[in-house]
Amino acid sequence: MGWTRRTGCGGRARWGCGGPDDANVTRRGHSGLVDEVWHGVEVRSRSFLPACLLAATALLAGCVSTTKDATPATSTAAAVSSESAITTSPAVHRTVVLDPGHNGGNAAHLAQINAPVPDGRGGTKACNTTGTSAASGYPEHEFTWDVTVRVRDLLAASGVRVILTRSDDTGVGPCVDERAALANQSGADAVVSIHADGNAGADAHGFHIAYADPPLNPVQAEAGTRLAIALRDAMVAGGAMPSTYVGSAGLNPRADLAGLNLAERPSALVECGNMRSAADAALIETAEGRARYAELITAGIRAFLG
């Protein structure tokens, strides 16, 4: 079935259908599920799926923070991994790192997330940011978490081993350089950061895919660019509209995103839409819209994995 973007009802848009175990892990089972605790982070997975916790990465899309700081919190750098036990998918044995941008506790810990960290090009960048929000107040960190969980479930169902950079939407950080280092260590076949933009332009709407440019290593130059193109192509094929305000044809080469600069694994960042656009927000704020974003991102990842 095709996915088309239609405008109506005062300019609002809608989507329509057209045709390890280790000594640090403890487990306790209940209600057909297995709970695992790894270095203090609790994870729940299905009892018939092997699960482990690994460290991973996140990529940063810069946004401005204005909320007062509170008591420093520990960065939530542990990650969740899930695997499918039985599958015939060619993607089996592949690993994908998914990064839901920002985190729900960032706004209360500004001193922590504003601390400078390496940006990968000889400068510094803020550890993390709070993210943007829609006019209604719906926050980016909540949107990115929702979409990421949906993508995780879709990929895991086809045998992909999925690593998340955070286990919930209530933590702080982790810093972007920590996330990049952890993703590199994971040996992921693809690293995809999920975000939404906050551009105030009058007609600024649509998605774009960011990738490192100029590239700093062969992976960024080749596989990273291919991943970005695969994601862009899947979004367009599914009916999503490329950005009207940044980049070209849905692609946006960037030199200022630390997570992309530091990447040693194929990495790209998806800005699903512009939360300040009424049309895009109408999709971002609905379960139907978030489900469709997840489907298209998943399609792009699968196409890249082959």
Q: What is the 3D form?
A: globular
Strand order of the largest sheet: 6-7-11-8-12-15-13-14
State the total count of DSSP E strands. 15
Low-confidence stretches: 1-72, 82-88
- The secondary structure category is alpha/beta
Percentage of β-strand residues: 25-35%
Labels describing this entry:
306 residues; three-stranded antiparallel beta sheet; globular; alpha/beta; eight-stranded mixed beta sheet
Note down, in words, how this protein is organized.
The chain is of the alpha/beta class. It is 27% helix and 25% strand. The protein contains seven helices and 15 strands. The chain has helices spanning 110-113, 140-157, 176-186, 218-237, 258-261, 278-284, 287-305, and strands at 2-8, 12-18, 25-30, 33-38, 41-46, 51-52, 80-82, 95-100, 116-118, 124-126, 161-164, 190-197, 208-212, 251-254, 267-274. The strands form four sheets. The protein has an eight-stranded mixed β-sheet with strand order 6-7-11-8-12-15-13-14. Strands 3-4-5 form a three-stranded antiparallel β-sheet, with no helix packed on it. Helix 4 (218-237) crosses helix 7 (287-305). The longest helix is centred in the last third of the chain and has 20 residues, at 218-237. Residues 1-72 and 82-88 have low confidence and may be disordered.
Topology of this structure?
Layout lengths: L1 E7 L3 E7 L6 E6 L2 E6 L2 E6 L4 E2 L27 E3 L12 E6 L9 H4 L2 E3 L5 E3 L13 H18 L3 E4 L11 H11 L3 E8 L10 E5 L5 H20 L13 E4 L3 H4 L5 E8 L3 H7 L2 H19 L1
Quick recap of the structure?
By secondary structure, this protein is α/β, with parallel strands linked by helices. The protein has helices at residues 110-113, 140-157, 176-186, 218-237, 258-261, 278-284, 287-305, and strands spanning 2-8, 12-18, 25-30, 33-38, 41-46, 51-52, 80-82, 95-100, 116-118, 124-126, 161-164, 190-197, 208-212, 251-254, 267-274.
